[in-house]
Amino acid sequence: MNTLALTFANTQLLALPSGALYWPDEALLCVSDLHLGKSERMARRGGALLPPYEGRETLDKLARDIAATTPSTVVCLGDSFDDARAADALEPALLDALGVLMAGRDWIWIEGNHEAGPVAVPGRHLLAFRRAGLVFRHIAEDKENGEISGHYHPKARVETRAGAISRRCFLKDARRLIMPAYGAFTGSLDCCDTALAELMEPDALAVLLSDPPLAVPMPRAAAKRDGTRRMRRLGA
Fold it and tell me: CB atoms < 10 A from the CB of 213, how many?
């Protein structure tokens, strides 16, 4: 697997092309914003109909990352289910597949804004998780360094010789690291948007999801002023 090594808060991490983050010293795999059950929630609420296989696609990708990294701990950084009812409505086959992935591992579900409390799925349900100087939570705060979070679904648009490309991305500065959305059919927020631009330091990097991931200076030109509206449209 092609990865990109990142030094963050004196810790060596690996960014995976899928949008997962692996911490070799702790055998810990972190993913964010799986949004399992998104197609079911959209149908239930009368929204746009999405293909019903997004959960399988997301779990298949997670299974490949688990096979490649063999983690003893998996941290899901919130919004793992599109809402609490979507968790209850998961197909038995998906629950079985999830159970296989969880078996023998310390599986930590961080609370997100889509599922504000523990759901009826095994594992540890926490507001935040701390290990060896890093803190994992769903939404970035200003309380401490070494914070890994999700929620914003960042993407970056960069110019290349072949033209502009737009990819989901990690955002990283000296204090915080924001994860990309991992789930299929999840929307993204441009990192030039004020909602993200104001969170990150001027020297922040965007790590684009490619094979291998590619680190570039975080784009900031023409920062948009509609971050709140855009996040509402994402349902975040």
Answer: 23
**Exposed / middle / buried, residue 44 (Cβ in 10 Å: 0-12, 13-18, 19+):** middle
Tokens of 225: 């002023």
Report how far apart, in Å, the C-alpha atoms of 153 and of each of 123, 165, 210 are.
24, 17, 16
Tell me: the pLDDT tens digits for 156-210? Answer: 988 777 778 899 999 999 999 999 999 887 778 999 999 999 999 999 999 999 9
Which pTM was predicted? 0.86
Summarize pLDDT for 19-50 with one digit per residue, the tens.
Answer: 999 999 999 999 999 988 654 544 445 555 45
51: preceding bond cis by omega (within 30 degrees): no
End-to-end C-alpha distance for the chain, whole angstroms:
31
Instruction: Tell me the angle at which helices 92-102 and 54-69 cross, rounded to the nearest 10 degrees.
Output: 10
Give which of 94, 27, 39, 24 is closest to 63, Cα–Cα: 94
Residue with tokens 């000296």: 174
- Given a contact cutoff of 8 angstroms between Cβ atoms, the answer to whether 36 and 87 are in contact is yes
Read off the amino acid at residue 39.
Answer: S
DSSP classification of residue 224: -
Reading the block at residue 159, the tokens are: 């110019």
* C-alpha distances out from residue 77 to 3, 45, 225, Å: 20, 25, 26
φ, ψ of residue 106 to 5 degrees: the values are: -80, 105
